[in-house]
Amino acid sequence: MTASPLLVSRASIGDLPSVLALVKQCELLETGIAEGIGSFMVARSASAVLGCAGLEKYGELGLLRSVAVAPSARGTGIGAQLLQSIAAAARADGVRELFLLTTTATSYFQKHGFTAIPRESAPAQVADSWEFRVGCPQTAVAMRLALKEA
Known about the structure:
The chain is α+β, with helices and mostly antiparallel strands. It has helices spanning 16-25, 33-36, 78-92, 106-111, 124-127, 130-135; strands at 7-10, 40-44, 49-58, 61-69, 97-102, 115-117, 141-146.
């Protein structure tokens, strides 16, 4: 992969095809992305979208979803940049805690401050989300991150 400047920014409707393709390539859930594309961040090089991450907001709680990095760009810090951008946007929008479900990346998210929690301890607003109710398997690990003031 050639090194080109990376830009992390809020996704636009024009990014939707690239985000959907990336999420599908990474075997993540596509449901709800089109409706929520404005709450996604994308990492792009000059030529392509290399990563994405979304946020569903439930009052002061947020559900981090669809964190995906192109296989060719993994290990370059793109995921960390996306997580920082989503956390900053969430804090600015009054979110105090982030939650997520993962079947494959528990240790990755732990490295970024998330802690595993019993799935049933997730607040009702988050537990009532499509991802918690039916989207993710019951074997998915629930995780939580308290957002600190910037």
